[in-house]
Specification:
The protein is of the alpha/beta class. The protein is built from 21 helices and 14 strands.
Length: 563
């Protein structure tokens, strides 16, 4: 690799005035050769708090080897992770979405503060993936995102398990369908070791999306966390980051309207997480690319679900890998005309990458477009009385028809979970959980504890759940999240009362209620903000609507980062 003539890191390594900076760097083990090469940030979200990220410290070494092989100098630093699975159902879950902004901010501060030339970001748990893309898009520096991979399935009583099964077992236990001992056995069996949660939940959804967005090399994220191929991919990704540092190709070359549409198509066609809607809006905002959440609705009308993956289907991410991976999945969609060819960080175009896909004979995970799991996509964007700025309906695995019922209103997740646990929710109910939005939460908690408990009682698809918060990628059933405006901003969801008739029409993309809105508005008394102090209150002051990605800084289409 030839030496790059001018580079960002010259600001700390070149000239007599930078002798103090070089002296500090020499103390950290760097030398003249390191200064002459591009300096590549190896950003790690390693932590022992969660299996999703606990192996990333080991993967960092082959990443560093790849950076060096590409003629660049690795510079290590860490950022944070907040586990969705561990914090789910409690106050700590308010920190999850907020952590996305903190991760992106911290990456920006170190990379820009030390004038580093490029970054490779090692990610695992849910919010680390979009945060990595947001940081690269914001700075417009060369970069690669490397996903640490999925967990292997647990095993209990002859069936594969994921964390979804544990949450649903809680509901089954509450309804008396399983014993204390059975719940304990499922808990102890579900998560066998390192890797992110195993279905097409948020982490695996976003890993797939980043590959089709072009910021992660196709195939690098596929191998499970403990698979021997993971280290090979780590080295590959490190070398690609080094090569991008030499070429100075910034991340905004890959994040475009066309690539965002490709990535959204992949989400829809895989029955992926509703959280992708929120994260795509945030990534687009960071890149200064026009984007509307309506894209997911438009694509769902014309894109079938072709993977049989949990939470709505049968299989897990390791099964997708064994069947032919994201490449085979993408090739099926490419051949049917659902993608546009776009550049990727591998140096090859998306279509070149997908053309290499190989199908495992007899696989049952990835269907053809002509023989889909579901004829239309798994996401709908709804508008109407209750959601003037939009809401997100997840239908993968369930009917796309209508649902009407009487409202059961809860101010906060805990109250709703208590009612579900006491078997107070019945088929036909519309459960409304409010004051859980980005501002009102604060932090826009996920409602997996509630949706899984409902599913565990056999009510998935028989009960509708509506919230201004979020639903986990592992949630399934007739669930509607991201209702905007949220209750804390005086949105119509704040005016709903017990017994109101709620009408949901997935085909017409409507969510309405038979309410005298003027009378309700006149009698409305706003709820006092949920003050939590510190970063939580700061987030509540700054955060935008969920329909705009729940971001905390203003953006324009100008490129500010790559300076």
């Amino acid at each position: 690799m030839s030496e790059t003539r001018t580079k960002r890191s010259d600001a700390i390594t070149k000239g007599p005035a930078k002798a103090p900076a070089r002296a500090m760097l020499r103390a950290a083990g760097y030398g003249d050769k390191d200064f002459a090469q591009p300096m590549v940030a190896v950003v790690n979200t390693w932590s022992t708090v969660t299996p999703c990220n606990m192996h990333l410290a080991d993967l960092a070494e082959p990443v560093r080897a790849g950076v060096r092989a590409g003629g660049s100098t690795p510079i290590d630093f860490n950022t944070i992770v907040v586990s969705d699975g561990i914090t789910m159902g409690g106050e700590g879950m308010r920190a999850s979405l907020i952590s996305r902004e903190v991760i992106a901010d911290s990456i920006e501060l170190v990379v820009r503060g030390h004038s580093l030339d490029a970054a490779i970001i090692l990610v695992g748990c849910d919010k680390t993936l979009p945060a990595a893309a947001m940081a690269l898009a914001r700075m417009d520096v060369p970069g690669v995102i490397f996903y640490g991979g999925t967990i292997m399935p647990g095993r209990c009583n002859g069936r594969d398990l994921s964390i979804q099964d544990v949450f649903e077992a809680v509901g089954a236990h509450a309804s008396g369908d399983i014993s204390d001992g059975e719940l304990d056995e499922i808990e102890r069996s579900a998560c066998p070791g390192a890797g992110a949660c195993g279905g097409q939940f948020t982490a695996n959804t976003m890993a797939m999306a980043l590959a089709f967005l072009g910021l992660a090399p196709m195939g690098a994220g596929d191998p499970p966390a403990i698979d021997g191929a993971k280290e090979i991919q780590a080295t590959r990704c490190g070398k690609l980051a080094a090569e991008l540092a030499h070429s100075r190709v910034g991340a905004r070359q890959f994040v475009t309207e066309a690539s965002l549409k490709n990535a959204a198509t992949a989400v829809v066609a895989s029955g992926g997480s509703t959280n992708a809607v929120l994260h795509f809006a945030a990534i687009a905002a960071e890149a200064g690319v026009p984007f509307s959440i309506d894209l997911f609705d438009e694509l769902s009308r014309v894109t079938p679900v072709i993977t049989d993956l949990k939470p709505g289907g049968q299989f897990l991410a390791k099964d997708l890998y064994e069947a032919g991976g994201m490449g085979l999945f993408g090739k099926r969609l490419m051949d049917a005309g659902h993608f546009t060819d776009t550049p990727t960080v591998s140096g090859r175009t998306l279509f070149e990458e997908l053309s290499d896909a190989v199908e495992t004979p007899g696989q049952k995970v990835i269907r053809s477009v002509d023989n889909p799991v579901k004829k239309t996509g798994g996401l709908r964007i709804l508008y109407g009385d209750l959601a003037p700025e939009g809401a997100v309906l997840k239908t993968a695995g369930y009917s796309d028809g209508s649902f009407s019922g009487r409202a059961r209103v809860f101010d906060g997740e805990e109250a709703a979970f208590k009612a579900v646990s006491k078997n107070e929710i019945k088929a036909g109910d519309v459960v409304v959980i409010r004051h859980e939005g980005p501002k009102g939460g604060p932090g826009m908690r996920e409602m997996l504890a509630v949706t899984a408990a409902v599913a565990g009682q056999g009510l998935a698809g028989k009960v509708a759940l509506i919230t201004d918060g979020r639903f986990s990628g592992a949630s399934h059933g007739f669930v509607i999240g991201h209702v905007a405006p949220e209750a804390a901003n005086g949105g119509p969801i704040a005016l709903v009362e017990n017994g109101d008739l709620i009408r949901i029409n997935a085909e017409d993309r409507r969510i309405d209620a038979d309410i005298d809105w003027d009378a309700r508005r006149a009698a409305f008394v706003p709820r006092a903000p949920n003050r939590m102090g510190g970063a939580f209150d700061k987030y509540a002051r700054l955060v935008s609507s969920a329909s705009k990605g729940a971001v905390t800084i203003e953006h324009s289409t100008e490129h500010h980062g790559n300076t």
